[in-house]
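Example record used in the benchmark description.
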Amino acid sequence: MLFNLRTLLNKAALRNGHNFVVRNFRCGQPLQNKVQLKGRDLLTLKDFTGEEIKYMLWLSSDLKLRIKHEGEYLPLLQGKSLGMIFEKRSTRTRLSTETGFALLGGHPCFLTTQDIHLGVNESLTDTARVLSSMTDAVLARVYKQSDLDILAKEASIPIINGLSDLYHPIQILADYLTLQEHYGSLKGLTLSWIGDGNNILHSIMMSAAKFGMHLQAATPKGYEPDPSVTKLAEQYAKENGTKMSLTHDPLEAARGGNVLITDTWISMGQEEEKKKRLQAFQGYQVTMKTAKVAASDWTFLHCLPRKPEEVDDEVFYSPRSLVFPEAENRKWTIMAVMVSLLTDYSPQLQKPKF
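Model output (structure tokens):
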């Protein structure tokens, strides 16, 4: 029966111009660490242990190997549907989620503010209950983290944070997969953040220490990370024996860093602050001068879209820049998130060394 199914799927793939093949897509061996994420929400990496985050990265590598490099078709989400709520526009989050969910055999449904206006046309409670009856999961890219919290409380299906004002967990998974692929291991790396104390930095602070990574962050005065996030991050660093430092000096944060990281200085919804922010962030552009004080094996990350005032072309387009593999890995990591929250699949790839 399995052979006949594979034969039919292979023929269908060829008819549609695809060059992948369907092989035996049995699950791997049961996990020794018994990580079980099925049915959970992903609102912030604060809610996940180091082993659970490592599992998602392991699964990302597994799917990338089997689908991209070995050409397999894995319909792990066959018959499942995903509601995608986007209050903010997006390139990478939307494309990676839509194409990734479809590649796994599922049906993604994109909803803009013209289709669904959270808490306005319909209460968040009612929206959560309706979506729970028609989809298997929801990815929401919203302005307020509190909206995600309400959706998660009222929904009976997994809710995934596609970005909020406080956190952007699915971006950080892609960052870590990229660094894992480049360095071979994450433990002991020093991450140097130079920029705004925003949702990206918050997500790093909620997870880096769990991998044994150190964090050195520089933000302008008045743009520091949220105090409650900082307090918890300091606790994580103490528990995991890592170092975390906050400064207003970009070169101090970059000194000895393996990974130079920045982000947009002006996020969606902050356009009116542009002039003020550009002035506050003077001296924060990542350049080769910044890189000179970093570790000899330094690399650069930016979650995109990028503006030249944030990082100059010499760094952004250099061989040390990992921004485009980082962007591609948004796809493999969000696929892993959806598979882990919706199925019992376990990786066949040997677990990487983190």
